[in-house]
């Protein structure tokens, strides 16, 4: 097999080039090639300095994550980085694209770094539940300082080359089109400079307060995660004056601990699950896409406005339609306010706000949608209203336009059937707030065309969403799984639990909020029959008393003017009255029972969704829950979590509480505890 590493001689400079597409991951072959190339440069008396650069779209984007579950192959990355650094001839890293993780560590092993302004450098290992394990935690603070090293390792967000340059992580910026030439020139300049600057030999600049301040400021953000604390501990080690060698020993030990843990396995699972989700089993990757130059949105309410903002932010013009001028004005006003709030936080410039709003065409004329290539209906959940809209759309939309509904529950096939072009109809289920939440459920109708699906999936990527394909089923993937959870949570109240107890179990599990906190946020009255005399469950009893959640300052909790919740004596009374009415004597409910009945039941529903072919793969379900509902990523989504919990335990828990268990779950127990 030919090596992905080649060397090119430019007089006394040896240029080492990696070509391991798509992202130049540091696979075993790359590491072996790098080792051989460095040896070649060191041994050759005619070579005075070296440059390492990559072909394709990026500098090394990290270790090869696919190798993490396989037996290690020499040379390991830390050895390669040490070897580069030990070279007695200067080595220059020439960086474009993204120097991430192990890629950033290779750059840190080099003696000099030159980058194009569009490049980014980062140590995102923490997002995989890991830490930079090739010396990065010890070299980075020595080169870029404690503060930046904490930011980069514990948060994992890459920084632009310009900032890296200011921090000393990049020595020089190059022109976008002349990286290689400038890197060679740089190597010529420094070829005779001695001593060679080695990151491991630099002292750590003292910054005693930095670690404590960083921990204090970010405690909430890191709640539940193991890896940020391990990253911080490694930087702290460097800051404490430990020798480089001691720091490396500590880094290795922490890296291995994280690598063996469940959290990293879960986070790596999600990295690949997210990428896998965009692939549709029976739609070839090379399917030609429909061109989307203008998007139409029907409805300027919270959803319609949020949906529009996604496209406007990506530079795609939007025509937004409402029935009344005041509703239209309110909707566009909210969009502007949201953009301005983003600008106030420094995440957008005033020019960008105007560009986004300038690409919006608000109108009361439905026929204006005729010029759109994709039209998304975002009105309230009512089948008759939706059918009426799609009947009208069928008459005015241009041939080939994609007609989408943002319904969260309703049958896409029934909607498509009112048109003469069901092949062009698809569900695009955004999650609220639609301009923020990353998930998009793409609902595939019985007749939805392959190129419509492929186009919507590609568009989702463009507007920075994570798209998952769902089949037509009530609530699709996410909301369908929410149903057993909410039903069981409400039953548990009747049987003896409190809203506080159930929410506490969910928050301790890592969810951003529990079922009742979520009900209060979304509105206890959602889906309510609006008859205060008809009390069929505890939710009805609350709704009948105008306890509709945060918006009425009373729901399952009481709220003050700042929406701070407190436990409600009245809710306790309502629950008690309802129990008496139903003749239920409350009993002690254990946290384990709450887990079994509100979380195992979700897993069971997920398994049914898979059996019915309404999701393509178990990992898609995990992606839905992570990006749509805030399931803790370190637990890898409900289906992954069930496997770490033990499918036998999940099945036993379901059976103990009398739930009919999905066949595929039972079968998977027999087949070694793995779901397909
Ligand atoms: N290892 C193996 N495969 C990788 C990979 C990696 N580090 N990074 C990306 N890939 C694969 C993806 O799975 C995808 O495969 P597919 O086409 O079969 O689905 C393909 O490369 C392209 O990736 P993206 O779709 O993500 O391409 P983008 O252009 O959108 O993004 C990127 C490129 C920013 C580099 C992004 O892929 C990324 O963030 N990669 C991961 C970076 C990372 O986490 N690096 C640290 C690794 S851990 C490490 O280095 C440990 C060390 O400290 C010892």
From TrEMBL:
SUPFAM superfamilies according to UniProt: 6-phosphogluconate dehydrogenase C-terminal domain-like, ClpP/crotonase, NAD(P)-binding Rossmann-fold domains
Cellular localisation: Peroxisome
Organism: Sphingomonas aurea
Keyword Lyase among UniProt keywords: yes
CDD domains: crotonase-like
Chain ranges of the 3-hydroxyacyl-CoA dehydrogenase C-terminal domain: 475-559
Family matches, as PROSITE patterns: ENOYL_COA_HYDRATASE (PS00166)
Substrates-to-products reaction catalysed: a (3S)-3-hydroxyacyl-CoA + NAD(+) = a 3-oxoacyl-CoA + NADH + H(+)
Pathway connected to this protein: Lipid metabolism; fatty acid beta-oxidation
3-hydroxyacyl-CoA dehydrogenase NAD binding domain location: 295-470
Complexes and interactors: Monomer.
Alphabetically ordered keywords of this record: Fatty acid metabolism, Isomerase, Lipid degradation, Lipid metabolism, Lyase, Multifunctional enzyme, NAD, Oxidoreductase, Peroxisome
Family statement drawn from the similarity comment of this UniProt entry: Belongs to the enoyl-CoA hydratase/isomerase family.
Domain of life of the source: Bacteria
Protein name, as recorded: 3-hydroxyacyl-CoA dehydrogenase NAD-binding domain-containing protein
